């Protein structure tokens, strides 16, 4: 048996996976907030626009990594392939996100002239089904987030990836980064409506981080269990300082500590909250999420039978 | 319709690399970037004097249960009527999903630099005119001329045995059916069509 | 793992032109038909038969070419499936051969060294062929003929012998330095030849592994598994048939890795192993008594003279034994048997006898106390017990005994004959011992044993026929004689002052004669050796009181600067100002071409016809083949034949030269002249004229051999179609012309010779020494000036080397991009200095580290990259003969590899002047320590 690091997918794909998870989750959380919490439309529009941007950039990274990106449309041929579904999900996502965001854009006076070019009946439809689209969009966002994990878990000889725990981990981590991004937006927003949801997001993110920690524990426990390449991968990660310090400590524990502190001791008025630390926590979660993708890809090791 | 397969008799492989050189020339693979459709592993185990040196030739296993094909979104990777797993160069977008999915390290990228170098070396006689992911084809072009695959035809020690697994008279059928030759990594359920007689 | 599976694309460039929406861009229409299923592009495909040129295994190949836009390109080489020799298979070097033709670094036109520059600097100007010839001839005209020498590598030796020998004779140049002899052929094969009578310039025995049940290898790797294809195909079959394979090698090479039992013998001690094996076989009576008594000189009676020297009981006439004596076990009396014949079954003058292998004590012949040769072997092998050998070889006594017994009990059992020698003083003795053991089990010219080549059978039969019919064949050229007869005939020319108008023999012999006169060490058979060359160049050699100088060297397909031993000596020779002319004929700017005055570019093997038809290498069947050009030459290059003819023409000797070639090659001289004249008129290469004439000659020969005469055109058509013309297959040859069951072998007695009259004659001249013992003698390795050495200091090692599957000696400079690429994944095994991993650890050395290897006996140092492995003895290091070169004109090999011959001493043994290239120890230290 030989364990060999995969040398096929690198940081470009990690970027795609990260932005896919982030974008998908951002939209999904935003839509859920919209549906169940009610939220400032301006902030929502920013969030959704940014999530679209994340996915566009992510897709550019994916395409740029291909040998023949101009033929990418062919990827809609084989439904047994996860990439096929990725394309479907992402496109569904784009459709939903755009359909959802257009009515929200009316909040922005400078965009009015553009919006007005859209025929009224369509606009009307979009307005009418806004909540429904939010529902569908959040599903698409979720699928995009989980798809990033499904994509790489379909490698039979990369034991570390080839486990259902990985999509789960990616989806949780994706939602954690999404929550962190929204938290960041809400805190940067001057809009009181946006700020109102900060606490919610803070709690959500903390819960997600705790969940992520539990999954990570189970994941590594599984990986270390058998002398397969999964163990070699796990050991590789344990020996990577950037992963341990950058992802695990700075990307999970520190933000969790900050957020927990904020939740339990931070007082209840927004003004009491040390804004800077919270911004730092969000940023750390985002960086951590990116590092996770990079390192999970790096740690992907084939187990060859020779 | 055939079900082509190969048997590697590891008792005789001396690791001479003739198969690699033959394949590279026949299929114009990018030796200039050290990429090959077939490789020969050379492994030692044990401590002096109880050492073993094992040479293991490998290529695409032409799996019946084909993870690369499942992973390929474009249908570029397909199986022909003879059970040979092939890549349609023009359909391939080079997303590498198949490379990640393949448990046998059988694929590599024929990238745009390689395409250019091939043109320099072979002039008009290029066979890889667009970038794509490449792999062993069991030399389909030779099969249609009733020639054995290049690596098989040249192997000096007759390590590589090729034929139709469904043909009861063929050597490969007999060896595979007898259980003397076993596939690699059977646990993955890929059902390879390349079998190994242990050394 | 191979690196760079996927190379990154220019990320930003791509990112720039794309947007996320490009997913939806419709491009269905772009598809063309190119898939992995489509056959290759281009026009008509043609197959041209040829012979591989990368090692002396002489594989038959078919070259595939394809045309596009009026340009024909070589696209693939395959083994020729019609070939009984390599059976359609070829090795990595053969496969990659076309890359030599398309190598951008090739020599593309004649080059002349710029006046005033020094040899070794690479300061050349392009020249026309006319200029180059004028340069050469103007220098040759100024010197005496004996002051020139040809230097040929094996390609030159095998393919152009019929041209170089008559060239020498016509031009009265008595000197050829032929590399394979000192390095390989006489250095090792002479040992087996002393027993079998065979001798060939490049490998004579094809071991029939596939029919053997037990195979024992010693000191060989490349000769089978790394790789000589003809042998590898048979070896692979043997493994499949379940033969037991035992391999003696201090490290686990490719062959040893396939053995059932690997015996990591201490380097340079195999001789002791075989002596102990013989000891056991004789005592356990594990031999084919019937065969030995009938077809060998074992039952001959022999006696010891007062000095203890052994002589055969024989009657002499004309300096040759006319009869030998045996003890007949039917009559119980001593009976004479004929002097030269294949069998001992009939007494001289008639009557069936049964020669005894063992004779009772007290037997006398003409007043001498006599014993059978066989009894002498028993007696002399007494001390060589397995226990004795165990202490020397580091192989347990039980193992040696067990192997001997297993070997003796298995039939057919085979000791592989081995191939390359040139390592230790005992090598000729060791190979002789291997042949003796093979003879004892009756495994000569028999399935599962040593098969003699078709060519050898045919020449042996012819010689025997001539002899029986009183036909005088002394006028025939040496190449017409079989085996050792050929060697003797060559000696009659090159070692014989009277064979030359100027009375000077080859300088290697002149040197030996002078050394002997002065009581200094020399060699008996420095055939085509380089002994005396340096002295002659420096002006120090005298012969019969007259100076014997060397002023012109013409090298063809030879790369002494990289692989003749040692490099320093050749540098001294080639840079000496006394040399007025150094010509190098090559295809690539090798290290040696750096030192030439004139470089003549040869066609590569795929661009040329050969001028003759050649026998099928060591194949047992009788057949002929040649090289046919696959494409027109790419550059302004020429054939060797044309070069030699043109030099002869400008020296005014073309006519006699052509006659000489016709005689050597068995061509019709008139037809040849006509064809040559026609070619000259048509301004076509002369070599085609030779080939045409050769087709006719082989057609006639076919008539003689098979009764079916063919026209030249028919021969040519067969060659073009099948790649070879098989006149008699192996089974028929072995049945009809068995050596020695049907025909005498070309030894002194016609039998297989356990007792060696040639060694006897050496002992006669040089005094009794184990090295010249015609029965048995143990010769330890000579690692220091004092002899053997067994206590090594901590960083001291025995030194070994050998060949790897991807490089040939004939291209130590191999600049082949494909071969370099397939070497890459095995860089450690194929290019590194092997050292035992545990041992390396104790020295603080690690895998991949740069180390300095110092020859502790002679001083030179080289650098190497360490390969640590458990596959080698802790007291031994191994350096592969990897590719590499100094000449930076070679863009792939330049600056790579470790030059083995920079570590070598100039150390030769006294029989064939072969190189003692492992008789020293080395230290290994980290670089910069
Ligand atoms: N380092 C090292 N040295 C060795 C050995 C070893 O294993 N390692 N082995 C020894 C043995 S066993 C042998 S037999 C000898 C062999 O040694 P040789 O027979 O002398 O090898 P060459 O044939 O000289 O090959 C050398 C040159 O031939 C050139 N050449 C190749 N093809 C052609 C051609 O078509 N025409 C012409 N004109 N030149 C051509 C190559 O470019 C190269 O420069 O080497 C001995 N020396
Ligand atoms: N790849 C390749 N194949 C070739 C050739 C070539 O150039 N390249 N050339 C052909 C020619 S001309 C020749 S002469 C033959 C040569 O073929 P071989 O005669 O097989 O010579 P080497 O390959 O040098 O193999 C020598 C082996 O002997 C081992 N050895 C060294 N010292 C000792 C010792 O003291 N005792 C024992 N038992 N083993 C020892 C080495 O480790 C090595 O494995 O190969 C032929 N085939
Ligand atoms: S050609 Fe045959 S013997 Fe040589 S490495 Fe390949 S499989 Fe092994
Ligand atoms: S070995 Fe790899 S490339 Fe070949 S069929 Fe199986 S999965 Fe596909
Ligand atoms: S790289 Fe080509 S063959 Fe492989 S999965 Fe992608 S499209 Fe299919
Ligand atoms: S079958 Fe053909 S394509 Fe496949 S490894 Fe062998 S030579 Fe290469
Ligand atoms: S063994 Fe290889 S290098 Fe030697 S002649 Fe045959 S194919 Fe050529
Ligand atoms: Mo040799």
From TrEMBL, chain A:
The keyword GTP-binding belongs to this UniProt entry's keyword annotation: no
GO CC aspect terms: plasma membrane
Keyword Transmembrane helix in record: yes
Membrane topology: Multi-pass membrane protein
Main subcellular location of this protein, as a coarse class: membrane
Transmembrane segments: 13-36, 43-63, 83-105, 132-158, 164-185, 206-226, 238-264, 276-296
Location of the protein in the cell: Cell membrane
Keywords from the UniProt entry: Cell membrane, Membrane, Transmembrane, Transmembrane helix
Family to which the UniProt record says this protein belongs: Belongs to the NrfD family.
Entry protein name: Polysulfide reductase, subunit C, putative
Organism: Chlorobaculum tepidum (strain ATCC 49652 / DSM 12025 / NBRC 103806 / TLS)
From TrEMBL, chain B:
Domain 4Fe-4S ferredoxin-type stretches: 4-35, 50-82, 83-112
Any GO molecular function: 4 iron, 4 sulfur cluster binding
InterPro entries found in the cross-reference section: 4Fe4S_Fe-S-bd, ET_IronSulfur_Cluster-Binding
Alphabetical UniProt keywords: 4Fe-4S, Iron, Iron-sulfur, Metal-binding
Protein name according to UniProt: Polysulfide reductase, subunit B, putative
UniProt xrefs under Pfam families: Fer4_11
PROSITE patterns: 4FE4S_FER_2
TrEMBL record, chain C:
Keywords on record: 4Fe-4S, Iron, Iron-sulfur, Metal-binding, Molybdenum, Oxidoreductase, Signal
Required cofactor(s): [4Fe-4S] cluster
CDD domains to which the protein is assigned, alphabetical: MopB_CT_Thiosulfate-R-like, MopB_Thiosulfate-R-like
SMART domains named among the record's database cross-references: Molybdop_Fe4S4
SUPFAM superfamilies membership: ADC-like, Formate dehydrogenase/DMSO reductase, domains 1-3
MF annotations from Gene Ontology: 4 iron, 4 sulfur cluster binding; metal ion binding; molybdopterin cofactor binding; oxidoreductase activity
InterPro entries: Asp_de-COase-like_dom_sf, MoPterin_dinucl-bd_dom, Mopterin_OxRdtase, Mopterin_OxRdtase_4Fe-4S_dom, MopterinOxRdtase_cofactor_BS, Prok_Mopterin_Oxidored, TAT_signal
Pfam family for this entry, one: Molydop_binding
Positions of the 4Fe-4S Mo/W bis-MGD-type domain: 45-105
Similarity field: Belongs to the prokaryotic molybdopterin-containing oxidoreductase family.
UniProt-recorded name of the protein: Polysulfide reductase, subunit A, putative
Organism: Chlorobaculum tepidum (strain ATCC 49652 / DSM 12025 / NBRC 103806 / TLS) (Chlorobium tepidum)
């Amino acid at each position: 048996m030989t364990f060999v690091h995969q040398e096929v997918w690198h940081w470009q794909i990690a970027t795609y996976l990260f932005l896919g998870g982030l974008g998908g989750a951002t939209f999904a959380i935003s839509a859920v907030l919209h549906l169940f919490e009610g939220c400032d439309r301006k902030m929502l529009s920013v969030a959704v626009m940014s999530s679209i941007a994340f996915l566009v950039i992510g897709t550019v990274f994916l395409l740029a990594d291909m040998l023949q990106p101009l033929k990418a449309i062919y990827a809609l041929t084989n439904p047994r392939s996860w990439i096929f579904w990725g394309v479907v999900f992402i496109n569904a996502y784009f459709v939903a996100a755009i359909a959802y965001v257009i009515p929200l854009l009316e909040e922005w006076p400078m965009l009015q002239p553009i919006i007005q070019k859209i025929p009224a009946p369509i606009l009307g439809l979009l307005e009418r089904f806004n909540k429904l689209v939010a529902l569908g969009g959040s599903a698409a966002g979720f699928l995009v987030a989980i798809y990033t994990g499904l994509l790489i878990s379909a490698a039979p000889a990369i034991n570390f990836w080839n486990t259902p725990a990985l999509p789960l981990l990616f989806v949780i981590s994706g939602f954690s980064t999404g929550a962190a991004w929204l938290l960041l937006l809400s805190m940067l927003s001057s809009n009181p409506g946006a700020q109102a949801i900060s606490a919610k997001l803070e709690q959500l993110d903390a819960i997600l981080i705790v969940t992520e920690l539990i999954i990570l524990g189970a994941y590594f426990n599984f990986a270390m269990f058998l002398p397969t390449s999964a163990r070699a991968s796990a050991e590789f990660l344990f020996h990577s300082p950037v992963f341990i310090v950058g992802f695990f400590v700075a990307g999970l524990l520190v933000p969790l500590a900050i957020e927990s502190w904020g939740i339990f001791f931070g007082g209840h008025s927004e003004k009491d909250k040390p804004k800077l630390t919270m911004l730092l926590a969000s940023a750390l979660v985002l960086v951590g999420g990116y590092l996770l993708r990079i390192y999970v890809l790096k740690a992907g090791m084939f187990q060859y039978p020779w | 319709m055939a079900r082509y397969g190969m048997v590697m008799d590891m008792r005789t492989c001396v690791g001479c690399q003739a198969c690699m050189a033959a394949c590279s020339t026949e299929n114009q693979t990018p030796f200039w970037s050290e990429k090959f459709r077939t490789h020969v592993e050379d492994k030692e185990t044990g401590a002096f004097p109880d050492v073993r040196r094992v040479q293991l030739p490998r290529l695409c296993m032409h799996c019946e249960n084909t993870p690369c094909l499942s992973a390929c979104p474009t249908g570029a990777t397909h199986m022909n009527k003879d059970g040979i797993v092939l890549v349609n160069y023009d359909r391939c977008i080079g997303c590498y999903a198949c490379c990640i999915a393949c448990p046998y390290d059988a694929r590599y990228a024929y990238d745009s630099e390689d395409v250019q170098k091939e043109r320099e070396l072979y002039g008009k006689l290029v066979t890889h005119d667009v970038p794509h992911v490449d792999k062993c084809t069991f030399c389909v072009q030779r099969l249609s001329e009733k020639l054995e695959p290049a690596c098989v035809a040249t192997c000096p020690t007759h390590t590589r045995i090729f034929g139709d697994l469904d043909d009861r008279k063929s050597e490969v059928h007999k060896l595979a059916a007898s259980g003397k030759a076993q596939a690699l990594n059977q646990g993955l359920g890929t059902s390879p069509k390349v079998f190994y007689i242990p050394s | 793992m191979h690196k760079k599976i996927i190379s990154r694309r220019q990320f930003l460039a791509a990112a720039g032109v794309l947007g996320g929406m490009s997913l939806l861009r419709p491009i269905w229409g772009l598809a063309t038909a190119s898939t992995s299923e489509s056959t290759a592009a281009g026009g008509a495909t043609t197959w041209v038969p040829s012979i591989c040129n990368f090692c002396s295994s002489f594989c038959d190949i078919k070259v595939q070419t394809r045309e596009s836009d009026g340009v024909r390109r070589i696209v693939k080489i395959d083994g020729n499936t019609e070939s009984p020799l390599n059976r359609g298979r070829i090795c990595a070097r053969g496969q990659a051969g076309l890359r030599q033709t398309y190598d951008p670094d090739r020599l593309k036109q004649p080059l002349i060294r710029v006046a005033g520059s020094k040899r070794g600097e690479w300061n050349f100007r392009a020249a026309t062929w006319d200029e180059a010839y004028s340069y050469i001839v103007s220098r040759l005209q100024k010197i005496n003929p004996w002051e020139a020498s040809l230097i040929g590598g094996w390609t030159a030796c095998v393919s152009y012998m019929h041209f170089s020998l008559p060239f020498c004779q016509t031009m009265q140049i008595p000197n050829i330095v032929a590399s394979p002899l000192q390095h390989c052929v006489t250095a090792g094969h002479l040992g087996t030849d002393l027993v079998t009578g065979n001798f060939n310039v490049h490998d004579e025995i094809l071991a029939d592994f596939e029919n053997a049940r037990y195979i024992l290898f010693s000191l060989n790797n490349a000769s089978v598994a790394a790789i000589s294809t003809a042998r590898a195909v048979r070896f692979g079959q043997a493994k499949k048939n379940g033969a037991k394979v035992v391999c003696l090698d201090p490290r686990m090479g490719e062959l040893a890795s396939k053995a059932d039992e690997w015996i990591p013998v201490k380097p340079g001690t195999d001789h002791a192993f075989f002596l102990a094996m013989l000891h056991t076989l004789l005592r356990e009576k594990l031999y084919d008594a019937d065969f030995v008594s009938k077809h060998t000189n074992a039952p001959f009676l022999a006696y010891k003279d007062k000095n203890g020297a052994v002589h055969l009981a024989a009657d002499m006439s004309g300096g040759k034994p006319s009869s030998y004596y045996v003890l007949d076990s039917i009559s119980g009396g001593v009976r004479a048997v004929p002097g030269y014949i294949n069998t001992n079954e009939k007494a001289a003058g008639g009557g069936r006898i049964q020669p005894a292998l063992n004779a009772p004590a007290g037997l006398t012949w003409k007043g001498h106390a006599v014993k059978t040769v066989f009894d002498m072997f028993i007696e002399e092998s007494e001390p060589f017990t397995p226990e004795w050998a165990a202490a020397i070889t580091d192989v347990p006594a039980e193992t040696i005994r067990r192997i001997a017994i297993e070997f003796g009990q298995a039939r057919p059992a085979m000791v592989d004959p081995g191939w390359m020698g040139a390592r230790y003083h005992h090598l000729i003795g060791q190979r002789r011992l291997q042949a003796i053991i093979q003879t004892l089990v009756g495994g000569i010219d028999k399935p599962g044993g040593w098969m003699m080549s078709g060519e050898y059978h045919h020449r042996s039969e012819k010689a025997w026929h001539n002899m029986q019919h009183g036909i005088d064949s002394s006028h025939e050229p040496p190449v017409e004689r079989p085996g050792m007869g050929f060697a003797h005939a060559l000696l009659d020319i090159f070692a014989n002052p009277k064979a030359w108008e100027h009375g000077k023999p080859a300088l290697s012999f002149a040197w030996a004669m002078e050394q002997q006169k002065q009581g200094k060490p020399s060699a008996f058979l420095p055939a085509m050796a380089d002994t005396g060359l340096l002295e002659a160049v420096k002006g120090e050699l005298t012969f019969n009181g007259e100076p014997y100088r060397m002023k012109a060297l013409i090298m063809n397909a030879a790369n002494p600067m990289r692989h003749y031993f040692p490099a320093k000596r050749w540098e001294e020779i080639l840079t000496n100002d006394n040399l007025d002319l150094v010509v190098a004929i090559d295809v690539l700017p090798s290290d040696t071409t750096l030192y030439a005055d004139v470089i003549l570019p040869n066609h590569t093997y795929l661009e040329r016809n050969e001028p003759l038809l050649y026998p099928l290498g060591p194949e047992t069947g009788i057949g002929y083949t040649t090289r046919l050009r696959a494409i027109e030459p790419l550059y302004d290059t020429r054939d060797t034949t044309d070069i030699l003819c043109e030099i002869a023409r400008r020296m005014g000797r073309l006519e006699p030269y052509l006659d000489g070639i016709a005689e050597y090659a068995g061509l019709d001289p008139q037809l040849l002249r006509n064809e040559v004249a026609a070619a000259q008129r048509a301004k076509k290469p002369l070599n085609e004229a030779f080939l045409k004439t050769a087709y006719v000659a082989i057609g006639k020969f076919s008539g003689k051999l098979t009764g079916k005469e063919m026209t030249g055109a028919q021969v040519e058509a067969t060659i073009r179609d099948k790649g070879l013309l098989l006149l008699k297959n192996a089974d028929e040859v072995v049945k009809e012309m068995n050596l020695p069951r049907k025909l005498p072998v070309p030894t002194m007695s016609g039998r297989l010779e356990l007792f060696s009259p040639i060694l006897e004659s050496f002992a006669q001249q040089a005094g009794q020494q184990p090295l010249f013992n015609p029965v048995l003698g143990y010769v330890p390795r000579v690692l220091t000036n004092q002899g053997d050495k067994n206590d090594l200091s901590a960083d001291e090692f025995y030194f070994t080397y050998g060949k790897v599957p991807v490089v040939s000696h004939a291209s130590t400079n191999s600049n082949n991009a494909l071969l370099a690429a397939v070497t890459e994944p095995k860089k450690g095994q194929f290019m590194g200095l092997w050292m035992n991993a545990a041992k390396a650890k104790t020295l603080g050395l690690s895998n991949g580290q740069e180390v300095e290897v110092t020859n502790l006996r002679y001083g030179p140092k080289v650098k190497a990259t360490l390969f640590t492995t458990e596959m080698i003895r802790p007291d031994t290091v191994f350096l592969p003969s990897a590719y590499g070169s100094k000449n930076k004109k070679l863009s792939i090999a330049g600056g790579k590899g470790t030059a083995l011959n920079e570590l070598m001493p100039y150390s030769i043994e006294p029989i064939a002047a072969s190189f003692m290239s492992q008789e020293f120890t080395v230290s290994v230290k980290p670089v910069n320590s």
